[in-house]
TrEMBL record, chain A:
It is a peripheral membrane protein. Transmembrane segments: none annotated. This is AP-1 complex subunit gamma. Pfam families: Adaptin_N, Alpha_adaptinC2. It comes from Odocoileus virginianus. It is found in: Cytoplasmic vesicle membrane; Endomembrane system; Golgi apparatus. GO terms for cellular component: AP-1 adaptor complex. Residues 596-616 are annotated as: Disordered.
From TrEMBL, chain B:
Signal peptide: none annotated. Residues 1-105, 117-183 form the AP complex mu/sigma subunit domain. It is a peripheral membrane protein. Keywords: Cytoplasmic vesicle, Golgi apparatus, Membrane, Protein transport, Transport. Its main location: membrane. It holds the Pfam family Clat_adaptor_s. Belongs to the adaptor complexes small subunit family. It is found in: Cytoplasmic vesicle membrane; Golgi apparatus. This is AP-3 complex subunit sigma-1 isoform X3. It comes from Odocoileus virginianus.
Amino acid sequence: MVASSLKLQELIQEIREAKTQAQEREVIQKECAHIRASFRDGDPLHSHRQLAKLLYAHMLGYPAHFGQMECLKLIASPRFTDKRVGYLGAMLLLDERQDAHLLITNSIKNDLSQGIEAVQGLALCTLSTMGSAEMCRDLAPEVEKLLLQPSAYVRKKAVLTAVHMIRKVPELSDIFLPPCAQLLHERHHGILLGTVTLITELCERSPAALKHFRKVVPQLVHTLRTLVMTGCSTEHSVSGVSDPFLQVQILRLLRILGRNHEESSETMNDLLAQVATNTDASRNAGSAVLFETVLTIMDIRSAAGLRVLAVNILGRFLLNSDRNIRYVALTSLLKLVQSDHSAVQRHRPTVVECLREPDASLSRRALELSLALVNSSNVRTMTQELQGFLESCPPDLRADCASGILLAAERFAPTKRWHIDTILRVLTTAGTYVRDDAVANLIQLIGGAQELHAYSVRRLYSALAEDISQQPLVQVAAWCIGEYGDLLLEGTCEETEPLQVEEDVVLALLERVLQSHMSLPATRGYALTALMKLSTRLHGDNNRICQVMSIYGSCQDVELQQRAVEYNALFRKYDHLRAAVLEKMPLVERGGPQVNEAAKESKEVAQLSEAAPVPTETQASKLLDLLDLLDGPSENAQHPPPLDPTPGDTLIHLLDLPCTPLPSAPIPNLKVFEREGLQLTLSFVRPPGTPTLLLITVTATNTSGGDVTHFICQVAVPKSFQLQLQAPSGDTVPAQGGLPMTQLLRILNPNKAPLRLKLRLTYDHFGQSVQEIFEVNNLPVETWQ
Amino acid sequence: MIKAILIFNNHGKPRLSKFYQPYSEDTQQQIIRETFHLVSKRDENVCNFLEGGLLIGGSDNKLIYRHYATLYFVFCVDSSESELGILDLIQRWFFHSLEHVGNSVVTVFPLWLSQIFEEEGVLSMHKVFVETLDKCFENVCELDLIFHVDKVHNILAEMVMGGMVLETNMNEIVTQIDAQNKLEKSEAGLAGAPARAVSAVKNMNLPEIPRNINIGDISIKVPNLPSFK
């Protein structure tokens, strides 16, 4: 069958005449069938046309993988027309994930070494677009040769291909580093641009290269100066600025080279001042160069006067009427805010103005910058502005804005009350966008501010009464009402208006939350527990609450059902314990630097303490087990390892157990071994929260004249114990009382049996290897009782 | 580094797509769709910079775009590129692409406009330019780009290579392209001649060659030639 030899334009015309997507698909599929047949039958004269049509179909999204082999054939053809389309096809259809891509390596090699200029250019272009690591390794020598070719066109492309190769195979840096210095002396701007890019890439990858290239700083300065001085006369000038792209690249390289290096920075100072003052900023090209100059000045060790000049330039840009310029100004300020905070602070009012921009890109930048500029002196005004922004900003910025405000409040809050107010306001405005740990944080914060309990609970109550849809707010409010319900009903609080609250109204509100379809399961849990707590805080009878509990005892949600059943049991069978169980919570401990971790922990603890003191093990969830715990001080030994001491503390506190206080007197150390100056001492710790756990630290000290090396200590315990040996601090105990070696043992003793240890030591001392085995029977009683 | 260069029209139909990092075909189409979605939502007088979509890399990446008549030109770049520089490049590339791709009607107009552009400054002429284009040419600019997309690819390849800017001097680029086009034409001229001749003959619309030529009765008098001795 005669393959259609439509020209590309004719095919495009046909596709455009198709009125519907289905018609278009039909046209293309028919044509692709022709093309496939043509590839199969072989039509050397027209295959380039067929491939061009296929590439067009590919751009529109139709499958074109059967064209890959044809690309290879066309690349291998001697005609330039074929090669052009073939290489284009290779760039579009083949990438390093296809196995076929390696097959063009040979063709590229041939073209690079023997082809005419234009063909070499095609090959280099393809190599730099889709060249994989293997291809780059194979072809590196060829590209290196081309760096010395007489044709400027080829050299220009070869340099940029080298950049790509280094990105793929960093080891090739060694090959491409030497020619750079020479290439910098070229006059051709394209080659210069490529070389500067290459040097930048090399410097970014290796500190050694960075040092090496510091010596070209004078050359770069000279080149840039020439560019700046020549002005409009050259053919490279754009709006009066001579080759702005090259200027920008050189400035960027100077920044990298001058960073943290006095000498290079010195060399650049004058030039940078010249560029900053001579460049015309009324066009994009000039502004691009100026921005780059400013960033470079701020990043190197420049003179103070120069820095002032730079920041002033940025300030001017910030007030420019062109939005693009303002955008780039904001971006630049963001880059500087870490290193030159005070300089950027001066522009704070303008930045805050930009928050009101209708342009989403600009307001996003302004938001990021504003958040970075908040400090303890301006936190009140800034938060005010940011909260105003939060109310009107587009939805995709809300989450960032909300978490930003909360973070800033946490870091710089002047008073606790202000902090609580701020969080409250954020929760009311953008409750659905806050992060999960905001709830836990707020609860922790309120819990800690005892004097503000009454204030908080009133404000939260009012907020809740107005709107029960914002989940984080509802959760916090429910928790507070549960905890401090008595304060709510008490009467006046001097910081808010007097609020007369009836018990029934409070209960009704919580019930509403419980029943609302807008409430998440977690929120319902909070509400249920709050209701339960109110049974001890309020003075009325608890019939209403009991009713709710019995209704929810058959709730579909398993979590709620479990809680309701437990609370029911508390009402019915264990009423005498109810007051103790539902006492006010102690302050939840917050973890250290990792806020996320701490939040998770405190959330776990909050849930733990709320859901009636139930340990987090999966099996011990029934109230009856809890009562076993109540009866005696000995706890279940199956403690999950990650459980930190805090839940244990809370557990004990809540239960208010009449248990014997755990021994807190320190246990004396025990020396167990001594030989030729090497001593072994055991020290004991029994953590108060876990009575069955004993921590032993084995310390080996050496007072002799010779080092003890290859020291290994092994320990055995009787069968009923569990032993865990941690890695020692080292295996050498230096002589003359040097740093002792320590090793930690963890021993679990569930049966409280008398502890015995058997130790085996192997080490080298004074050139002899020693092995010692001995038992330790005289451990103090406190270690196992 | 430039991650991708896309041109699509006001309805999101791709007119040119070049990716400088390996993405699967599906991902490429998704990126085009997502970029169109993001860019088409923008107002007329906002800045030309946008945060990149999720697919093309997230926070480090930006979209730098220009909207001319019915076409969007979008560069997706990372933070190592100068935003204003790229913006400038798009502008100059657009004019020169048209010049060397389109027909004569279109060549003169943008050339004139581009000169005014560079002298009067970007902002003032931009609006005028877009409005004029809209009025006079409507689909002509887009059509040129559509029908000569391979040529636009060739021009682009001289400007951006491997995700990096190769050459910004438009005259150099144009010279190269002209030389390459000449090369193609000469190949088509010489080597293609025999093939073209054959296909021309094949396609010739010849009338039926009669099998039997009935000339009718011809009596040909054969003259008596003297014998030659």
